[in-house]
Amino acid sequence: MNEFYETDYWQKRARELEEKVEQLRLSRRVLMNLIEKLEKEKANLTSRLEKENKKLHCANYRYARWLLRKNSQIVELEMKLRGNIKQDSAN
Predict the structure, then answer these.
(1) What tens digit of pLDDT does each residue of 18-34 get?
(2) pTM for this structure?
(3) Would you give the end-to-end CA distance of the chain in angstroms?
């Protein structure tokens, strides 16, 4: 009779462990899906930020060129103004 209870115990224990293994497999699949989703989101965000960075870099470059042109115009106007002042004072 003792062997019957022992066999029954081990059979129940084996079923419990099999159920736990199945639960772990399910949990692993869920976690892998979450990781995959996070990696896709990260890749999308990285791509979007890289595009935005490139756009900002181009805008900054255009702005810097515009500032240089304006600075050149200011210098040119100052030189003309100084030239006119020298001519007026010479007359």
Answers:
(1) 999 999 999 999 999 99
(2) 0.62
(3) 133
